[in-house]
Write a structure and sequence with these properties.
The complex is a heterodimer of chains A (about 230) and B (about 230). Chain A is mainly beta and about 230 residues long. Chain A has 3 helices and 17 strands. The longest helix of chain A has 14 residues, at about 50-65. Chain B starts with a strand and ends in a 10-residue tail after the last helix. The chains are: A mainly beta (about 230), B mainly beta (about 230). The interface of A and B includes residues 81 and 86 of A.
Chain lengths: ~230, ~230
């Protein structure tokens, strides 16, 4: 399995080349195109999961984070093939190669990974009470590539110590980094007014990926110019 | 007439420089960015009311097209599509066909070029979306755009599948079939709605973003209408 990210950074497209009978799992809705020998199955996040339990898990994920409902598996039948993926918004995509470590990925940034990577969907997030921002992380562990997307450009930051990251700008970080959700400034009012309601205090050693634009900010800016919806 | 594709790939724009008076280019209504003053602009329903209405209803293109005619040498004209993304030109020999998804057409040069909206040959209730292709027949040059980058694929022997929302166009020599992705269940659960399966010898053009996904992202941010 091999990923190539083309047309970076603004209008990225990820090409996933598969060897015969190799499988990639990807978020529903991310697929742009594929060779005809790809067999597609709507499935759970991990092998072995399925059925009604998985349906409820899917619903829970959707309710908690911006993540889409289902995952599809794409298998190249009998000969090599490829699948291409793209995100909804303008921005870059990046591949993190897991070598046994754990990567925590913001829910809507996760795109695809092979079966050798375990995606844990248990709730690890925090729902912002004041700012309306919600935060939800998936954990990816094992060996192999993990494809992620971002809104805007992706900055890779190697942390050794402490740093503050806005909740709307975090893409992913390795588990050597611990996070806590804190108010950006002291006091409720000033924290709200600064536009940085809740931020992440990242502590430890590891790699972080941050995105140069904030999807919620963009959504709020455009959303208030659109006519109200029925429901 | 000279053409230059500038500001590609993210914000593609077409710059035309007319050499001689009387040279013409036809564009989608609303594509004009700027022009010198010795260019005459005429708005018309190309091909008459019925042909224009068919294009509007079936292909989603606008009812009107503008014809720009130069009345002096050295006149410049800038044209651009709606979405951010790439812009390309395709030269077609006499009788050669090129198929474009509705909305991808920006402009064309060539008085004998024929633009016709074709039904994609799809049955069923779900067949209503984006299955009408604009058939462009040479001689001439057609300019087309994408939302995002333009990705080109030569269809491999086993065939190629494209999400309908990402399809920009394809060359002749290909046959295609539209189907629901992953069956009925797939329509609701997998996120993708309809896909095109291509077979034969030719090239398919894809866009790396689609307007529907952007709209779906923005929808939850709209205010909810007050009840009563």
């Amino acid at each position: 399995m091999e990923f190539h990210v083309l047309y970076r950074p603004a209008h990225s497209l990820a090409v996933c080349n598969l060897n015969p009978n190799e499988t990639i799992r990807a978020e529903a809705g991310a697929m742009v195109s594929m060779t005809r020998n790809i067999n597609v199955v709507a499935a759970a996040k991990n092998p072995g999961e399925g059925g009604l339990k998985s349906l409820f898990k899917g619903l829970k994920r959707m309710a908690l984070g911006g993540e889409s409902f289902f995952t599809n598996t794409y298998t190249a039948m009998n000969q090599p093939g490829h699948v291409t993926f793209a995100p909804s918004l303008t921005g870059d995509m990046i591949v993190h190669n897991l070598q046994g470590e754990t990567l925590l990925i913001q829910g809507s940034s996760y795109v695809a990974a092979p079966d050798s990577v375990t995606i844990d969907t248990k709730f690890q997030g925090f729902k912002g009470l004041f700012s309306g921002e919600s935060l939800f992380f998936l954990s990816a562990s094992g060996h192999g590539p993990v494809l992620m997307n971002a809104f805007g450009a992706i900055e890779t930051i190697d942390l050794n110590g402490e740093m503050i990251v806005d909740t709307g700008h975090i893409v992913a970080f390795t588990s050597g980094i611990k996070y806590s959700v804190v108010k950006a400034t002291k006091g409720l009012i000033s924290s709200f007014l600064s536009g940085e309601g809740l931020v992440l205090r990242m502590q430890g050693q590891g790699r972080m990926y941050v995105q140069s634009r904030n999807p919620s900010e963009f959504g709020a800016t455009v959303g208030r110019m659109l006519p109200p919806r029925e429901n | 007439m000279q053409h230059q594709l500038i500001d590609t790939p993210d914000f593609g724009m077409l710059q035309i420089t007319f050499d001689q008076p009387g040279e013409k280019i036809v564009s989608e209504a609303g594509a004009m960015v700027a022009m010198d003053t010795a260019i005459q602009m005429q708005t018309a329903m190309r091909g008459g009311l019925m042909a224009a209405a068919k294009r509007k209803l079936l292909g989603g293109e606008s009812l009107f097209q503008n014809t720009f005619t130069s009345t002096a040498p050295g006149q410049r004209l800038f044209l651009s599509p709606g979405p951010e993304g790439d812009l390309r030109a395709m030269n077609l020999a006499p009788g050669q066909n090129f198929f474009l998804q509705s909305g991808a057409y920006v402009a064309h040069v060539g008085e004998q070029m024929v633009l016709d909206t074709k039904f994609g040959g799809v049955k069923g209730f779900f067949g209503g979306v984006g299955l009408f292709m604009l058939k462009v027949t040479g001689p001439g040059t057609v300019y087309y755009s994408a939302y995002g980058a333009l990705h080109e694929i030569d269809v491999p022997p086993e065939g190629y599948t494209v999400d309908n929302a990402h399809l920009v166009g394809f060359t002749e020599g290909l046959t295609f079939n539209v189907r629901k992705f992953g069956g009925f269940k797939g329509l609701f659960f997998s996120g993708e709605g309809l896909v095109c399966d291509f077979q034969g010898q030719g090239r398919v053009f894809l866009q790396t973003r689609n307007a529907g996904s952007l709209a779906a992202f923005l929808h939850p941010y709209r205010a909810v209408k007050a009840k009563g």
